[in-house]
Amino acid sequence: MVNAGDMNGSGNLMDFLDEPFPDVGTYEDFHTIDWLREKSRDTDRHRKITSKSKESIWEFIKSLLDAWSGWVVMLLIGLLAGTLAGVIDLAVDWMTDLKEGVCLSAFWYSHEQCCWTSNETTFDDRDKCPQWQKWSELLVSQSEGASAYILNYFLYITWALCFAFLAVSLVRVFAPYACGSGIPEIKTILSGFIIRGYLGKWTLLIKTVTLVLVVSSGLSLGKEGPLVHVACCCGNFFSSLFSKYSKNEGKRREVLSAAAAAGVSVAFGAPIGGVLFSLEEVSYYFPLKTLWRSFFAALVAAFTLRSINPFGNSRLVLFYVEYHTPWYMAELFPFILLGVFGGLWGTLFIRCNIAWCRRRKTTRLGKYPVLEVIVITAITAIIAYPNPYTRRSTSELISELFNDCGALESSQLCDYINDPNMTRPVDDIPDRPAGPGVYSAMWQLALALVFKIVITIFTFGMKIPSGLFIPSMAVGAMAGRMVGIGVEQLAYHHHDWIIFRNWCRPGADCVTPGLYAMVGAAACLGGVTRMTVSLVVIMFELTGGLEYIVPLMAAAVTSKWVADAFGKEGIYEAHIHLNGYPFLDVKDEFTHRTLATDVMRPRRGEAPLSVLTQDSMTVEDVETLIKETDYNGFPVVVSKDSERLIGFAQRRELILAIKNARQRQDGVVSNSIVYFTEDPPELPPNSPHPLKLRRILNLSPFTVTDHTPMETVVDIFRKLGLRQCLVTRSGRLLGIITKKDVLRHMAQMANQDPESIMFN
After folding, report:
1. Would you state the CATH architecture of domain 335-404+411-417+428-579?
2. How far is the C-alpha of 79 from the C-alpha of 688, rounded, in Å?
3. Average pLDDT score over the chain
4. What stretches pass through the bilayer (predicted)?
5. Which of 725, 722, 741, 760 is nearest to 37 (CA)?
6. Using CA atoms, how far apart are residues 172 and 21, in angstroms rounded to an integer?
């Protein structure tokens, strides 16, 4: 017997794996990353850079560049996300107005921009100017009458259908991942799941273009959620330019967390709200360093958008408002009622939308995505046009509902009966009786509310980019404005009632209906998404009113309590479960008294666990095992008899290692012995070269005993981000628990279908 070290000096060849080779450490599509391994690899890389930096000036400069690369990536993400958001806002503004008319002096101007440039616009008729012509005026030279109305109606529907058809076609042909909100998938990716192409360049391009088209088509959806996806695509693109992030999936996710913050920052003009949204709603792993970088990315993105100034009001959002009256304690009751409404709406929406999306997935309906989009667009346009509150863009509707009625407002909602003797400052108009315009606006708002509630259920989840923030806020703002007007009129006509007597004297400006709209919007958005802290911060950054934090907090907390009473899942978690993604939610509690032995595989009656031995299997044996199974990795034991655990080898790395060894090392054949020990085994003379694979072996896999409570196992998986953990008893391998097994067990314990978890 001889050992392999004497074989013609082949020791160096056998250790070729001490040098890294391409693709080691990467993961296959639809698989979960190993957070512990990624963190360990980054620590090794950092240690190596630090030790090299002392060798020369050049290495020191390289270490500085490596340290600064994170801030450079954040700067680039902020600049690109802010620019794209500004371009999207300008394009949406123009294309939404294009459905109703065109600017003759410059066709690329929106209605508002067209009339800004006109010298013939009067203040009273500021929406009318000779340069802006409706389609009926342009085509048949008529602005009033039945024929003009019918022509405008027809062209409105035609434009909407064209925009929607173009959007769904682009998504279907070029980037199927560009559909939907993107936030459920971003949450899953940030938890460590790999979805290749979801954050790719094509997805970024197509999502940006189609987002403009679908919002302009008038469908009941928003651009805010998809802007988070767009920003994360920017983050993925820039992180691929730096090896520090491109070669480490854990580090890449730190960049994506910050990109999500930048996305919300430009969507709502709320940089601090964006950081809190990333922390509360989407991120799985959020170290302090990521918090600072998220803050910087959100700041740069907001600054870039402010420089573009898409709304021409020097604000970051369309619906910036300022109220001039404080709120009173008695108003907390209607605010809490709006919170209850928001929670009920959130529950209704989630249940109906998930039922519809499940039907779409399981019936023939899902085979015709283009037809579905066309039908929903046609229904939306036909019903929306006659009602002025559904005809305009949803952002403009929210802006009008949030507005306080000043002396210069021309909206129907501000058609109050004025006292001719009134001599008060412009900003302090007293409560007045409602005029006929307010009553007709209330009817139109009630119809618009019912329409929005129903149509949004069918719109969200179609094969086009679709955000949910703006439709949810619109539903809440409509309900809130109606409640606000009701309270205002009650206070005016019954100011001698005990609840109004202390704070609402005749001639005083007591109730602000716009504030009720804002509180209602926060309540409905909270009911659907279950956001609390970030929601309140986003809302007060939107409106610039720190004074109204308490009403917003009361509504947000109430809506969450009411919605949680019917089910803990928000809309994004519900869509994650619907798609079967392996997402272990931090908010989920596991209280059942099961043990690791109840969940581990193999179960009783199943085939024994597939394992590798440390020095007795050939290359052919390993390749056969890989071919006959589809496991992500294999435990390595001393021998089949002892089953003492040595470590764990990943499937992908075994395949790559054997493939590279056959190409680069002479003498490796099918009957070469594979060994994972430090020293080669003793082999008979003339036997082929053995193959050393110790470098790819994880010598410290995470293990638990068979009597570990599952509550602890779930906690370990959640907090350490494990892919799998091995179950042992006294050092002997008994089985394995994967993330998929944990999720299926949790689903089973919650009386849900465990087969709905499709990926590991």
Report:
1. Orthogonal Bundle (1.10)
2. 58
3. 86
4. 68-92, 153-175, 195-215, 227-243, 255-279, 332-356, 368-385, 441-461, 468-487, 515-540
5. 722
6. 37
